[in-house]
Amino acid sequence: MGLWTPLVYLGLVLLIHSLISAVQFISTHGPISLPADIAFECIIGCLISAFSYVKMTAEGEWKQISIAKAYSNLTWGRVENRPSFAHFNHRAKSIFSDKAPNNNRK
Amino acid sequence: MLGEQPQASSDNVYAQDKIAHNENIIYKCRAFGAVVFGILAGVFGLTSLWGLLVYVISSIVISIFLFATLPKLSIDGLFTSWMSILTGGFVQGAMTYVLVWTLAYDIVYIFF
């Protein structure tokens, strides 16, 4: 799971909690400025969740866009591989296996 | 021009699927940033240009976070220009931001 996924959830929990706290505060006191603790919790939750999500999504996921570097380790087998060319009952296994009942080699 | 031979150079030949992969990462991060900053703007009760300012700030913050994840803090080989990181997904993120901002503001200041 890594470190960043729990931090994303933690940030979202802080954000939602600040939202609910703001609803309760505004419903009792009217549309006035929010107290510092709710504002601080909202900002911290926002920054934690945003930073953790970027780290979780982008860290180590960037790919080289130059064709020479992007496909430098592409083998011929990977290039010509396609679903219609896959063999699931290749007879070489039974022909050249010593344990096969229909082995023709004596 | 007719008759001209195309210049053979591997320096400017890019893999489109890799470019799309990198831009998709930027788009997802900017969309998530739009959601969380939209909630923040709604909780704080921001309206009109203040909300737009918060979205611009969120876009800059997400760009800084994305820059911090780059290997060797450089775009060499990953993007064709800096504009991809700075403005990638800006309009789509703005739509998400306005949606969440409006919803959060209504929840806090109007519905209850």
UniProtKB/TrEMBL annotation, chain A:
Domain of life: Eukaryota
A Pfam family recorded for this sequence: MMgT
Primary residence: membrane
Any one Gene Ontology cellular component term annotated for this protein: endomembrane system
Spans traversing the lipid bilayer: 7-26, 32-54
Record membrane topology: Multi-pass membrane protein
Keywords recorded for this protein, A-Z: Membrane, Transmembrane, Transmembrane helix
Subcellular location: Endomembrane system
Family recorded in the similarity comment: Belongs to the membrane magnesium transporter (TC 1.A.67) family.
Protein name listed in UniProt: Mmgt
Source organism: Acrasis kona
High-level lineage: Eukaryota, Discoba, Heterolobosea, Tetramitia, Eutetramitia
From TrEMBL, chain B:
InterPro entries: Emc6, EMC6-like
Keyword Hydrolase in record: no
Keywords: Endoplasmic reticulum, Membrane, Transmembrane, Transmembrane helix
Record membrane topology: Multi-pass membrane protein
Chief location of this protein within or outside the cell: endoplasmic reticulum
Gene Ontology biological process terms, A to Z: autophagosome assembly; protein folding in endoplasmic reticulum
Location(s), subcellular: Endoplasmic reticulum membrane
Gene Ontology cellular component terms for the protein in this record: EMC complex
The name this protein goes by in its record: ER membrane protein complex subunit 6
